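anyone seen this seq b4? input:
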Amino acid sequence: MSLHETYLNTLTPWLSKAAGEVFTCPDRPELSYYGDGTNSWGVQTNQKALSAFAIAATDPLFEEAAAGISREDLLRKVLACLRYSLATHLSGDYHLTNGPAERWGHTWISVLGVERMAFALHALEPYYTGEDRAALRRMFLSEADFLLTGYPVRAGLVENNRPESNMWNGALLLRCALEYPDAPNAALYEERGRLFIRNSISVPSEEREPWFVGANFFESMATNHHEYMNVGYMVITLSQLAYLHFTYKLHGKPAPDYLYKNARRLWDLVRECIFPDGRLLRIGGDSRIRYCYCQDYLNMVLALAADRFGENTARLEESWQRTVNREQAGNADGTFLSARLELFRERAPLYFARLEADRAASAAQGAFLHRTWPSLETAGTPSALEEPYQWHDPYHGGCFVRNRENISSFVWIAAQKPQGLALPLSDSSLAEWDRNLVSCFDGDGLYNEHIVLEHQETMLSPGFVTSGRTLSRTWEMLDESKREEKNVELTLAYAALPDGATTVTIQYARAVRHCHLLRVKGLHLNIPNDLFNGYRRDYAGDGGRWLCVDGRLGVASVYGDPLTLRPGDHRTIGLRNVYTYDRGMLQVDEVCTTLSEEPRWYEDGSCILDFAAVLRSGADPAETEALQKRCRRLETSPDLRAVSVPGRDGKDYLVVLNLTAQPVSFAPEGREPAELLPGQAAVL
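predicted toks r here
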């Protein structure tokens, strides 16, 4: 089956369900909308849904019986949704459902949904009336004129970080210059669009360029979007570039070279942050719904990589669609996400519709691209991964190593600070990053987090070692006399050993005040156990010293409290405020060392946990047991923690951590003394 057919088959079951959720304006029956018809997300949701409707309805392989709606009826709904979008724009003559004075447009994000309609607008060309064409022109030029004078170009590594919006705003300006060359400001659109786009994938070393406004990416190509190391928005930025790339291709015109400035460098990092099955490997975590929005638009990036960078990405597209189809089949109603997002469907229907429309638009765009250019499926050569791959970003304290079998990463400035991953590449369903491999200390507040105090990293050859300190924070207390508390200091070391399979963590925590804690979870290794792995995990172990997950991930305790498997009993992974309802999106089991779920008091300065653990990717039970037996703690001063760990390469490694704020000398038997700086960890 071609990828064109694969994407169309993904989209088809959704169509009749979604078409039945299109509302018609009672006073303007020619106008309809999907979602709730409101501003912002409401506008975008309608635009993405109509894009999916349009591409399906104009596809030669569209099957009316399978879709549960005729081509004619679907086209009628498409045009009604498009006309609602145009009529409710500032250049139109109608209003949104928010109220009689509410219209959309002229914001930093108002063209996002417009850009995502790009292929649909092309597909609908034969069906436009003269008024449709006039309304489209009014809307496009109105937005372009606003971007000329009403919205400044901004960029920044931390403040004003705008890589994706600069890309989509610049793209709209260039699109207007391309589509409407007779517009009075066409030349200005091109000039302003170039400025936006050059300041999209921009880096600090370009600061002397005359066009430079600011850097949105560090030299490592990391981006601090939504205040964390955000792989997802690296993808979104490239996806917006892809829309414009293929628009030029539809017009048979070469795109300007500046459009691709630093795009290959960014792709080189994004490529490494994808599992072989097409799932995003979000080493910095995710603050939103798992495997949705940014994941959905990865297929645009993969098509760009095939067409522009000559890398065959069809296997990644096909593999991810199998995952999408498996989840969709489990819903049994044609929707993409209703089972794991039932809470959103019930209490946040617009958010649910928004996520459904993202997935539908993604499938539709994949179908359009592969129908229009079938050669994309066979273009280029398969990506060749470096052996091994290493990456480091100092600002985020981000370290990442990958080889053909395993990955290990740690990021301090992450979505849930900090978090690590250590797992085999062969099973992406093992990845869940919410405070993963970082001990948790839940106080009396509704919400809990780590405040990162300091971190430092050293890259090895290959591998890395990182260490730092955090302070636990709890807030939104029941006690109205308190706003928040800061209770526990955690000192942590995390080392990906040069053997390419073994990861070591040493963690020590003490109370910084006389405090009351509801829960303590040492280590906190998340093991997702939900639809993506078929709700089944096989655990083997000896009851406390070692544990093996599915015969492919081993966990061994070196010292400290025994390992405990805490099975998940409900879905907890989701947006922060979803914890209030105890109805999240994904369920996880947890592997912990110290595990206390009874509320208790801790004295100021008391030790809360003290342990070292080892993970080995690809290890079966026998290897995990043998690994645990050979690990040992070294005798040191109270200022240090040190462990000896055998690598899969036959070498023994020492991992040592200085717990103090002073330099400490470490002299292991038979080795040269090592001087450790305050809080530093080292691999010897």
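The mean pLDDT is 95. DSSP finds 17 helices and 32 strands in the chain. kinda curious what u guys think
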